[in-house]
Amino acid sequence: MNLQTLISIRNICAIALCLWESSAKTVTYDFNVTWVTANPDGLAERKVIGINGHWPLPIIEVDKNDRLVVNMYNGLGDKDTSVHFHGMYQNGTNSMDGLSMVTQCPVPPGSSITYNFTVPQNGTYWYHCHTDYCYPDGYRQALIVNDANAYFYDQYDEQFTITLSDWYHEMMTEIAPDFISPYNPAGAEPIPNAFLFNDTMNTSIPVQPGKTYLVRLINTSAFVAQYFYIEDHTFDIVEIDGIYTEPTQASTLYIHVAQRYSILLRTKNATDQNYNIVTVADQVLLDVVPSHLVLNHTNWLEYNSSAPKTQANVTLDIVSGLPAFDDFTLVPYDKQPLLPDPDYTINLQVAMRELANGLPYAFFNNITYTRPDVPTLYTVLSSGDLATNAAIYSQYTNPFILPKNAVVDVIVNNADTGSHPFHLHGHNFQVLARFPSYGPSFYAYKSPTSSGVSYDPNNHPAFPSFPARRDTLVMPPRGYFVIRFIADNPGVWMFHCHIDWHLEQGLAATFIEAPLELQAQLSIPADHLAACEARGIKTTGNAAGNVEDFLDLRGENKQAGFIPYGKFTAKGYVAMGVSVSSACAGILCLAVYGMSDGKGGKKSGGGGAGALVTSREKLT
Ligand SMILES: *[C@@H]1O[C@H](CO)[C@@H](O)[C@H](O)[C@H]1NC(C)=O
Ligand SMILES: *[C@@H]1O[C@H](CO)[C@@H](O)[C@H](O)[C@H]1NC(C)=O
Ligand SMILES: *[C@@H]1O[C@H](CO)[C@@H](O)[C@H](O)[C@H]1NC(C)=O
Ligand SMILES: *[C@@H]1O[C@H](CO)[C@@H](O)[C@H](O)[C@H]1NC(C)=O
Ligand SMILES: *[C@@H]1O[C@H](CO)[C@@H](O)[C@H](O)[C@H]1NC(C)=O
Ligand SMILES: *[C@@H]1O[C@H](CO)[C@@H](O)[C@H](O)[C@H]1NC(C)=O
Ligand SMILES: *[C@@H]1O[C@H](CO)[C@@H](O)[C@H](O)[C@H]1NC(C)=O
Ligand SMILES: *[C@@H]1O[C@H](CO)[C@@H](O)[C@H](O)[C@H]1NC(C)=O
Ligand SMILES: *[C@@H]1O[C@H](CO)[C@@H](O)[C@H](O)[C@H]1NC(C)=O
Ligand SMILES: *[C@@H]1O[C@H](CO)[C@@H](O)[C@H](O)[C@H]1NC(C)=O
Ligand SMILES: *[C@@H]1O[C@H](CO)[C@@H](O)[C@H](O)[C@H]1NC(C)=O
Ligand SMILES: *[C@@H]1O[C@H](CO)[C@@H](O)[C@H](O)[C@H]1NC(C)=O
Ligand SMILES: [Cu+2]
């Protein structure tokens, strides 16, 4: 069959699918979540979270408008879990968003829970565990929504999906205690042991000459962003995070944790050679680059299986700048114009530092997100008219009440020297401003001695007429961004950094959108409540679990006190010494100081310091 015939068959199918849309189907997955073993980098076999006895996990695939049902059984035996469907709007189904202590209870071993919602969106998404540190243990995979009405549907011959991720050899339960530890006051993130390409390495992707492929790229990392390019090929970006874009040519992408790109890749006509697909981990994010860690990887676009395959010589200058396509410039295909001026503005300042308990935390406006005793959604549903009073959710969840259909601006200034991929649940957002831009000046203010650049609402470049939209956006070091969306989706939606380490350090805020409308439209399914009962968590009351007086927050979980700015505790100094001396002798810094004297010291000397961590852990 020639290509022309193929295309016309596709068009007929497209029309047919269009007619079928009103009778969308239900797609059901049964997930028996258990431990299995895997060795994707060939360096170490380890326990990973499998589904139905397998890892890599199944790619969820649905057609636009389908109902997706996932029956999840927690067969892990020793760990709570949940699933979040990243990028799904969950419009009318906030209870299916999968965040422990926000929209549900953590599901304990031996319990089941069903997720059930419709998918009115198109594009490339993913699913992952959202209970403590759990997706780096392997619980993450692609979720693809096929859309026969996509404008580029008749422009490609085949599609494939590639996930990019970082990989740790140790279990999160082993790494995490050494991360939020008095011996790591600077909060140095654990260095991955490897970087995976589609959950493996050294792979060849066979392609035919003269064809067009839709390639869906998903970053399922816990920490590290990657550059992606294919030698001697350019491609057209057609989607970011579920939003179709005007086809825009690019050659190098920077894909941070949780971001997705779909590209149309046109293959060459000649089949005399293969081409390197190159991924480069962003070493700027790593405090130390251990000598064994391989940052640059070559996989192959295979035109000819008998032709040689070489290793790429990578020449991107990634240390002084960010040499990749700037997503800020992408224009959505639907050309949604700049939304009107905001009705409601949220100002957030990002910082990372140690608290008086000697542990490293991350902050929005000096508040580090601290889990409530009752999932925030359940507080909304049990609080009647008080649901619009932010106080009941505890100031330590960083709550913001958004009025129904308000145009909301979120202005985020970054006082931290790191870059952070921020994700908003339940929405995509327009990107109005970001500074510095991708390119040579991206790291211009990274130095700790620089004062950085703050957004000035009275003096800023004109906003784009058709701003890029996505659900995960990279924040530059010591720079800022401004995003805008309409609060048209009643629910409790988290806004947080998607680096799993930073989320655990508290870099999160809770947007409580139209809580009274939410009360009117939502009730919690019995199996979700049963999971709470099995886990011993209350399903009514304010953030402190008080049902008598919602304004009485006594007993709420709080963050530790501040230490005078610029001072380290004595313990902090010791810890710095430990981390400087051993950090970086070995493959995994934290594992190294986990084994040093530091750890014994923590057990005996952590004392009051551990209290907050204990109260955080107790709940999850
Ligand atoms: C899940 O898988 C485990 C291990 O194969 C098995 O023992 C268990 O019965 C399964 N549970 C369910 C609910 O399917
Ligand atoms: C991939 O290739 C590199 C370089 O040849 C090798 O060191 C590594 O072990 C390979 N990885 C796997 C999983 O085969
Ligand atoms: C999913 O939700 C729909 C609509 O509420 C309901 O009709 C259906 O029975 C539910 N399916 C499951 C498996 O719970
Ligand atoms: C989904 O695709 C339809 C066309 O099928 C388009 O009208 C709509 O804007 C798309 N939605 C998003 C979120 O891109
Ligand atoms: C990537 O991995 C998934 C699941 O393991 C597999 O289904 C898919 O075919 C792989 N993609 C490519 C391009 O090989
Ligand atoms: C995925 O994101 C992580 C975290 O930002 C990053 O380190 C990694 O390089 C990214 N991977 C790819 C292939 O883009
Ligand atoms: C491949 O050949 C076709 C038809 O001969 C031509 O239209 C196309 O431009 C060629 N593609 C490339 C990348 O040279
Ligand atoms: C494939 O590569 C081999 C080895 O380089 C070469 O001899 C052969 O001609 C190539 N085949 C095609 C169809 O280009
Ligand atoms: C990389 O450099 C080496 C040494 O200069 C060279 O032999 C090799 O062909 C180069 N590889 C590519 C893909 O250009
Ligand atoms: C990996 O890529 C970086 C960035 O381009 C480069 O500086 C470094 O030399 C590369 N390393 C190797 C082993 O190719
Ligand atoms: C955070 O606290 C410091 C010290 O108390 C204060 O100077 C600063 O203004 C606060 N920042 C925010 C954003 O509230
Ligand atoms: C949610 O649904 C409402 C009502 O159908 C609609 O107006 C709104 O645009 C939707 N919001 C999102 C984020 O899908
Ligand atoms: Cu972060």
From TrEMBL:
Keywords of the record: Copper, Membrane, Metal-binding, Oxidoreductase, Signal, Transmembrane, Transmembrane helix
A single cellular component GO annotation: high-affinity iron permease complex
Signal sequence region: 1-24
Molecular function in Gene Ontology: copper ion binding; ferroxidase activity
Domain Plastocyanin-like: 32-149, 158-280, 369-515
Keyword Kinase: no
TM spans (from-to): 573-593
Top-level division of the source organism's lineage: Eukaryota
Annotated PROSITE patterns: MULTICOPPER_OXIDASE1, MULTICOPPER_OXIDASE2
Segments forming a coiled coil: none
Annotated region described as Disordered, given as residue ranges: 599-620
GO terms (BP aspect): cellular response to iron ion starvation; reductive iron assimilation
SUPFAM superfamilies: Cupredoxins (SSF49503)
Protein family (similarity comment): Belongs to the multicopper oxidase family.
Protein name (record): Putative ferrooxidoreductase Fet3
Organism annotation: Mollisia scopiformis
